[in-house]
Give the backbone structure.
Amino acid sequence: MSYVIDVYKQKVPVQKNIISFGTDIAMFPQLIAGPIVKYSAIFDQLNKRTVNLTMFGQGTQLFIIGLCKKVLIANNIGILWQSIKADSLEISVLSAWLGLIAFGFQIYFDFSGYSDMAMGLGKMFGFDLPRNFNYPYISRSITEFWRRWHITLGAWFREYVYIPLGGNRAGILKQIRNILIVWFLTGLWHGASWNFVLWGLYYGFLLTMEKFFLLEWLDKRKSWIGHLYTLFLVTMGWILFEFQSKSLALGYFCTMFGLGSHVLYDQQALYYLHSNGLLMILAATGSTPLLNKLLSSLKERGSEELWQTISPVVYLLLIFLCTAYLVNESYNPFLYFRF
């Protein structure tokens, strides 16, 4: 679609090289899960790109980082969510919150890990694919969250749906219509099920509210208010995203807020917290730029040469650890491939 539309709009010339065209269609680093690359963004690279040892090494490092996100964090924290979800009718309030937070971390590290691996593979072959995530959980509004989460999908819908519909140039009512159409399609893109449609419209409604008045209100408040507001609404949105059954989604929502006969906490919840607390802290830290800032700070203090010396050993240890987990564990789904 991207190729046909970009050629139709004369943004790029017709591709007459069957090898270059076939490369764009068949290139495995950019699957539907992302990064979703517009043809116009990759046209020049299809015709001319640099393949060298430096880029291959950078791609390998990025691939290993993505694999660690997927195997070491997403898979392990996903086991917690699967345990809680399987017993969702009998769990405590604390278990319900732990489970949904775990799911939020699982889908982030699974999806961003895959995207990093795709970008790394692309770089190995000389392609500079666009970034797909930029620490979305540090956002202070839903608008900012979607500028940081699945960036290439948002850019694709904006380029090929929102702007052709008129964008924000056709008056307020049509602008609202355009936003809701985009988010209806965004939900449907994730799966042919009403829970995904409701999830998409949920965000369409929130983004509309922010665009016309809520974002201005948030900008005048302290940053922690925006952080809590965003994390809460995103976490609630994961209920719609994960449960195809409306009754199960409503039941889980009620459990989280203590509606019904569910206790605040029990021994099972304390066990989940105790056995997964360190992993949750690691996931929360990895969801922020803290580790990157720490590494940059060490380099600025003259430790860059030391890092260049030890980094090959670190990456080898990480790939060994990931391989060991993949061999020993049976729970290795690519979560986002379901959608």
